[in-house]
Design a protein that fits this description.
2 helices; flat; two-stranded antiparallel ribbon
Length: about 80
């Protein structure tokens, strides 16, 4: 719960454009990294952007999944690399 009364702020889904309350939306942070790779003046830029998805689009893109499946996937990754 948001802890305040009234209506939550609406966010638009980055995939389908659906208006979703902020408490239900899945926030996904992306990192962009640009570099010019010049000898003299090497310019590097790193930026972060937050995108909001509705639950159905987040499930489809595998950003959001049930906690049990997410924990199982993490255990499998630790088994492979650890």
């Amino acid at each position: 719960m948001s802890g305040r009364r009234g209506r939550d702020r609406l966010e638009t889904c980055a995939s389908c454009g659906r208006a979703v309350p902020r408490t239900k939306a899945v926030e996904y942070s992306t990192r962009t990294h640009f570099t010019t790779d010049l000898k003299e003046d090497n310019v590097t830029y790193t930026g972060f952007s937050d995108q909001y998805y509705c639950i159905s689009c987040a499930k489809h893109r595998k950003i959001f999944e049930k906690k049990k499946q997410q924990a199982q996937r993490l255990r499998e990754k630790k088994g492979l690399y650890g």
